[in-house]
Write a structure and sequence with these properties.
Two copies of one chain form a homodimer. With 348 residues, the first copy, chain A, is α/β, with parallel strands linked by helices. Chain A is built from ten helices and 15 strands. Chain A has a nine-stranded mixed sheet, sandwiched between helices. Chain A has a four-stranded mixed sheet with strand order 5-4-7-8.
C-alpha cells in the first residue's frame, strides 16, 4: 500500500493510546434505537492510490449502489437526491421531478465513515498536523489544507450516495466539535449524529484534523471514529470496505499469502485466527505485514468492536462479497465457504 | 434581485418569528475574548444571479483579498493554505514550501458567514424544505440536495480565503448541531465556533438546512446566524457585503433612489434614518422595496445587532468602501462623506 493510503489509518500505530473510550464507561447513548450498520469506506478502495486527490469513480459508484441495495429492501431504485451541477456541466445530476408522488421508502439505519486515501495525506504529512504544535504557521496552514482536501472527498462521497437515492448528510468531526486529548477522544458528542439518524438521514463522517487539548491539534482517524460510534450506537454489524479481500497472514501481494477468514476475540481483547487453521504463529507474520499496510491496527480496532458483541466484516469493496456483508447475510450462522473476507467476532 | 438571491435571506419575512434569542437572555458565552468582526458575504455579491450554482470568482477573490488585508496588519501576503488541486487541474493551488521558516502572523478574530446566492435556493424552494414535513420523500431529498449545494459553495469560499493565507475552516450549522423550533433557534451551541476562533482559525458558516423540533426541518438563514453569533461573541462591528452600495429608500435600480447613509436604532428596536434627511416617510418606501429585495428584513436584523451596541455596516463588496468597513476605519467617529454605504447603529 502506498503512503497515501495508510496515513490516516496508521496514526494509532504511532501512538498506541489513540483509542476511543470503551462502551462500558459510557452510561448514556443518544441513539433512540440501535442502528443496523456502520460502514467504513476505506480510502484505499475509493481513491486512486499514488495519485493526489483522485477518486476511483467506478468503485465509488458501485459501493454506493451496494449501500443502497443494503439499506432499502425495495428493488426499485429511488430517485436521486443530488440536484447540483457537476464541475464543467451545465445540467444538474438528478431531476427533482422524478419524486412526483413517490411513496415513502424505508431506509435501514446506516452510518458511513470514510478514510482519506489520496485526499488529506499529502497536506497532513508535509505539515505534521498529527504531531500538534498548532501555533506553528506551517502546522496551522496544514490543518486548513488537510480539512479542505478531506472535505472535498466527503462532498463527492455524499453526492455519489445521494445520486443513488441515499439521504446522505456530511458531518465533519471537527464541525461536530469532536476534540482529542493527547490523541485520545476526549469530547465527541454523538447526539447530532444520532439526531440525523433519527431524522432518516445517513450521516457521512470522515477522518479529520481536529483540535487536541494538549497537543493543539492532531488527526482523528476514521477507524477510531468507527470504534467510538460503535460503542455508542451498538450497530448490529460493522463492515470495513477495503481494496483487498480481507486480512491476510502476510502482504497479499505475496503469492502464498493466506486469507484469514475468521478471527475470534476474547474478553481481554486478545485475538486468534479460528479459520483457516494455520501452522505458524500468526502474530509475527501479521506484525511484519503491519509495517506496510496497517493491518494489525485494523485488527486491533476490529477486535475492540467485536469485544462489544458486534461482528466486523473486512471485505473487498464493490464485489459480491461486500454486498453480502453489507446486506447482513453473514450474521448469525456460519460464514459460507464461497464468501471471501475476514470476520472478526467475539469468542464468547 | 432575482429569486435565487433572496430565498435564504427572506425566510424571516415569511415568518416574523425567525429570530435568534437576544443577548440579554444569555448568561454564558464561550468566547474567551470579544471577536473583532463578523462578516456576511452576501449571496448576491459572491455568486452570479440567475445562473444556477455559479460563483462570481472575481468578486470572491477580491473579497478574500480585502478580508486578508483587514485581518492581518502586515502588508506582506502570507503563503496560501489551499494545497489541493482545482477541478481539471493537475497542480495544487498553493505551494507548502513557501512556508519554510515563515514567521507567526497575527490575525484578528473574524467570523465569516455566507449566504447561498444561486446555490441552495433552487433545491430548497422546489422541495419546500423551509416549510418542514421531513417525512415527505421530496422534502427529505430537498434537504439532502440543499446541503450538497450550499456546502459546495462553502468549500469554494473556504478555499478562496485559504489561498489568500486566511486560516479558514468550514463549519456547517447542521453539523454543529444547531436546531430550530418553529424556525426560532432553539439550540445553537457556539462553543465549537469559539474554540476554532481561540485556536486561531477563521470559521466560515453559512445558511443551512437544519432540523426543526416542531416542523421537522427548515432553512436557517445566514442573517439569523449572524444575529445569534453577534449576541454571543460581541464583535466590535459587523459588515454585510452586498451587491449594492447599501440600503436605499427604494429599489436601487430606480434612478432617484437615495442611499441611506446612517440609520439609528432606539432601545425598543425601532429605527429611523438620520442621514440624509428625507422629506418623505421612509417606512412605506422601504416596505415597497422589501417585496423584491428583503431590505426591510436586513434592516431589522441589522437593528437587532445595533441594539447590542454593535455598529453594522452594509456596503458593496469588493470596493474601496468595503475595505474601509472591514478594516474598522469607520468605527467611533463620524462617517466620512466620501464613504458609500449604510451604517446602522444604536442611538443611545
Amino acid at each position: 500500500m502506498s503512503n497515501f493510503i495508510s496515513f490516516f489509518n496508521e496514526l494509532q500505530t504511532q501512538n498506541p493510546h489513540t483509542k476511543t473510550k470503551p462502551m462500558e464507561h459510557n452510561s448514556y447513548s443518544p441513539f433512540t434505537q440501535p442502528i443496523r450498520c456502520i460502514v467504513k469506506l476505506g480510502g484505499a478502495a475509493i481513491t486512486c492510490k499514488n495519485e493526489l486527490e483522485m477518486i476511483n469513480e467506478e468503485i465509488l459508484q458501485k459501493v454506493s449502489e451496494q449501500l443502497r441495495q443494503a439499506m432499502i429492501s425495495s428493488s426499485e431504485k429511488p430517485p436521486g437526491m443530488d440536484w447540483s451541477k457537476r464541475p464543467g456541466s451545465s445540467e444538474i445530476c438528478c431531476n427533482p421531478d422524478e419524486f412526483g408522488d413517490h411513496s415513502v421508502m424505508d431506509y435501514s439505519r446506516f452510518i458511513v465513515v470514510h478514510g482519506a486515501g489520496s485526499f488529506g495525506h499529502f497536506q497532513a504529512s508535509i505539515s505534521g498536523v498529527h504531531k500538534g504544535q498548532l501555533d506553528k504557521p506551517l502546522v496551522k496552514a496544514g490543518f486548513v489544507a488537510t480539512r479542505i482536501s478531506v472535505t472535498t472527498l466527503t462532498l463527492e462521497i455524499v453526492r455519489a450516495l445521494a445520486r443513488e437515492g441515499i439521504p446522505s448528510i456530511g458531518m465533519s468531526p471537527f464541525s461536530c466539535g469532536w476534540i482529542t486529548k493527547e490523541r485520545q477522544i476526549s469530547s465527541a458528542d454523538v447526539s447530532s449524529v444520532a439526531k440525523a439518524i433519527d431524522s432518516g438521514f445517513a450521516p457521512v463522517l470522515h477522518g479529520d484534523a481536529v483540535l487536541d487539548e494538549i497537543l493543539g491539534c492532531t488527526i482523528l482517524s476514521g477507524d477510531v471514529i468507527i470504534s467510538h460510534l460503535a460503542a455508542y450506537s451498538k450497530p448490529k454489524y460493522v463492515v470495513f470496505l477495503t481494496d483487498v479481500y480481507g486480512v491476510y497472514d502476510r502482504p497479499p501481494t505475496e503469492s502464498d499469502a493466506i486469507l484469514l477468514k475468521e478471527i475470534a476475540v476474547s474478553e481481554d481483547g486478545s485475538w486468534s485466527v479460528v479459520k483457516p487453521k494455520l501452522q505458524n504463529s500468526i502474530e509475527l507474520t501479521v506484525a511484519s505485514h503491519d509495517t506496510t499496510g496497517g493491518m494489525k491496527t485494523k485488527i486491533s480496532e476490529a477486535a475492540m468492536i467485536a469485544k462489544l458483541g458486534i461482528d466486523v466484516y473486512i471485505v473487498k469493496a464493490a464485489t459480491s462479497h461486500s454486498l453480502r456483508a453489507l446486506s447482513g447475510d453473514l450474521r448469525g450462522g456460519n460464514i459460507p465457504d464461497d464468501w471471501l473476507g475476514t470476520v472478526v467476532r467475539s469468542s464468547t
